[in-house]
Design brief:
The chain has 470 residues and is of the alpha+beta class. The chain has helices at residues 14-45, 51-58, 62-65, 69-95, 148-151, 237-259, 267-297, 319-325, 328-345, 386-399, 463-466; strands spanning 2-11, 112-113, 118-119, 124-127, 133-136, 139-142, 158-163, 172-181, 184-193, 205-210, 215-223, 228-235, 300-305, 348-351, 369-372, 375-378, 382-385, 408-417, 423-434, 440-443. Strands 14-13-10-11-12-18-19-20 form an eight-stranded mixed sheet, with helices on both faces. α1 crosses α2. Bound molecules: zinc ion (ZN).
Length: 470
């Protein structure tokens, strides 16, 4: 199981902040009362009361009853954990093995300002189980004490506007804690996600990822053993066509609205914008899935990533494509989705510091010229697609190698097939070989026309993948 913390940002309104602060105070009061009992016993006998004992001692107190059960019990659990760690540190202290940053071991303290004799708010509001909270589309809600419903405009639960990202396909919610950090409110939810079984020994290869001129992403995988570089180009052209299709629809509808003298917001227009964004997001997500699938198949353990969000020197995407590829939101999306997906399967994500250049030839390191946007020419090595050159350069930078030992480059082109399939499908294959005098030679790939666009499309069964050269 992958134990992770899901961080959710909450946006409480004015009165909601008041309610949260009151909850914090109530938690602190229960903590203080229970902690008093444990401390008394500890100083008298040296024994630490168990959670059950403390629970039985305080369960009828007004402090306990002032909170919903799942919050009250979570406070007591936190107290018990705090005492447990105190006990463990004491043991270490006796053995003289205390970590250096801990100077003094003291029992759990009260949330109290002694000078003013005031209860201080507890740092977190713990919630024991997911039955007492829920996370939905843009909201988070939590149970509250019954009397809150008289003081605040609450019907059932206290509901906040919330934003978050869930990087897992399947997960289980555990305990949660609401906290305030620098004036911002968050809820941290412990989640358990199934971990993929990995045999680290099998993973031996490296990959580089970069933005492309004619590609949404270019992926270069280095097969260390076979001295083979596999390049995957995720072509942006088809995606761009679809983007244009929706943009046109939006424009058409806008002019229709203008003609009819419509004023104010239009629901249909908003939906069209939403649709355009959704379609793009779907393509990005499918691309990330495909990339993970490819990386796993070729036993990649670490991926070096170029600057996916910055605007880089020497990259001119063309006027129209610029609009799509230079959109920061899209690039951020690509980066985040990819990062999460790789983490999930345990592949390392290593960003390459900014300031690298894609103007040099990956093969010999000499400066390239660029007669056209999409290809570079090296005086020694010949013509090469500039996107491939970029991705392999990232790979080289990550491996800190001046020279890559390679014999062959297999370049696979994938396009976004939207009609019927919504998948990235194989388009064609190209192979480069290294000549004796170190010149790249583009060889004729046995490039069969592929018409595999069925629902159960699988690259493994596609003829191009069957003939793995090597
Ligand atoms: Zn060269």
């Amino acid at each position: 199981m992958l134990k992770r913390t899901l961080k959710v940002r909450l946006y409480p309104t004015g009165w909601q902040k008041q309610a949260l602060k009151e909850l914090q105070i109530r938690c602190a009061k229960l903590w203080n009362r229970a902690n008093y009992l444990v401390r008394q016993e500890f100083f008298k006998s040296g024994n630490i009361l168990s959670y059950e004992t403390v629970y039985n001692l305080v369960k009828n107190s007004p402090e306990y009853k002032a909170l919903p059960t799942d919050i009250a019990q979570a406070v007591l659990k936190k107290l018990a954990e705090s005492w447990k760690s105190f006990k463990e540190l004491k043991k270490l202290e006796k053995k003289g093995k205390l970590p250096k940053h801990i100077k003094k071991v003291s029992p759990p303290k009260y949330f109290k300002d002694r000078k003013q004799n005031k209860t201080l708010p507890m740092s977190v509001i713990p919630i024991l189980a997911p039955r007492s909270y829920s996370l939905g589309d843009f909201y988070f809600d939590v149970v509250v004490p019954k009397d809150f419903k008289q003081t605040y405009p609450i019907k059932k639960r206290l509901e906040f506007l919330a934003t978050y990202k869930i990087p897992y396909t399947s997960y289980k919610f555990k305990r949660a804690e609401i906290l305030n950090k620098n004036g911002r409110w968050y809820v941290h939810i412990s989640v358990e996600a199934p971990k993929k079984e990995v045999k680290p020994k099998e993973r031996v290869n490296y990959a580089g990822i970069d933005l492309g001129v004619r590609n949404l992403i270019v992926l270069a995988i280095y097969d260390v053993k076979r001295k083979l570089i596999r390049v995957y180009q995720f072509k942006s052209k088809e995606l761009w066509k679809e983007w244009k299709y929706w943009t046109k629809k939006i424009a058409q509808y806008q002019s229709k609205l203008a003609k009819s003298g419509h004023k104010g917001k239009s629901l249909r227009l908003r939906k069209l914008y939403e649709k355009r964004q959704e379609r793009l997001k779907l393509a990005i997500q499918q691309m990330a899935n495909k990339i993970v699938q490819i990386l796993e198949r070729y036993n990649v353990k670490e991926v070096f990533v170029g600057d996916l969000t910055g605007i880089r020197e020497g990259k001119n995407y063309g006027r129209e494509l610029n609009k799509l590829l230079h959109n920061f939101w899209i690039r951020k999306q690509i980066e985040e989705i990819l990062k999460y997906k790789l983490e999930e399967v345990g592949i390392d994500w290593s960003p390459i510091p900014e300031g690298y250049t894609s103007q040099i030839c990956f093969n010999c390191g000499s400066k390239t010229i660029r007669p056209r946007r999409h290809f570079v020419v090296c005086q020694r090595c010949g013509k090469l697609h500039s996107d491939i050159n970029g991705a392999i350069n990232i790979l080289k930078l990550g491996l800190k190698l001046k020279h890559l030992e390679w014999k062959k480059i297999r370049e696979v082109h994938l396009i976004w097939k939207r009609k019927g399939t919504n998948r990235w499908v194989f388009k064609y294959l190209r192979i480069y070989k290294k000549h004796k005098d170190k010149v790249l030679v583009r060889t004729l790939a046995n490039n069969p026309p592929v018409v595999v666009v069925h629902k159960d499309y699988c690259p493994k069964s596609s003829p191009a993948f069957l003939m793995r050269g090597g």
